Amino acid sequence: MSYELGQRCETALGTLLQRRMRVTLYEELVAGIGRGVDITSYPILSGLARLGPVTAGTLGAEVGLDRSGVSRHASRLETGGLVYRRQDPDDARNSLLVLTQEGERVVGLLRERLAGMFGEQLASWPREQAEQFVSGLERFVRESHHRSSANPQGEEPVSSGEAD
């Protein structure tokens, strides 16, 4: 039974994570925000809110972009007054991307919008089913995060050569 559930999960998550699904979600989410926030810069803003002051390279690794892509999007957010750069105190050759107060306010607004969008979608579900779904998703993410933290490079575990 767990293999069948795994297949169903793979199919559902594969669909959910497809670019067109994210684009549709992000378009609705960022509508009317302006200030350099669009479907391409939203992951930068969101990732920066999660990670705090961080280099473009580190942020890029988190959101799946290269350093130059992060810098390009961050420059638009900087022009919009949502992000600024400061020297990295640990390495003067690097700069850190930091949210401004206005950037923090916009992230708060975006998170409220996103929670509202998800809440709207779940509103038609029976309350118990919605609760179980969210609890299960939280657990799935927590356990997946733990597994990825234990194997940060995404490498396959090395087999001892013995049968499991």
TrEMBL record:
The keyword Chaperone does not apply. This is MarR family transcriptional regulator. SMART domains: HTH_MARR. Keywords: DNA-binding, Transcription, Transcription regulation. Residues 142-164 are annotated as: Disordered. Residues 10-142 form the HTH marR-type domain. GO terms for molecular function: DNA binding; DNA-binding transcription factor activity.
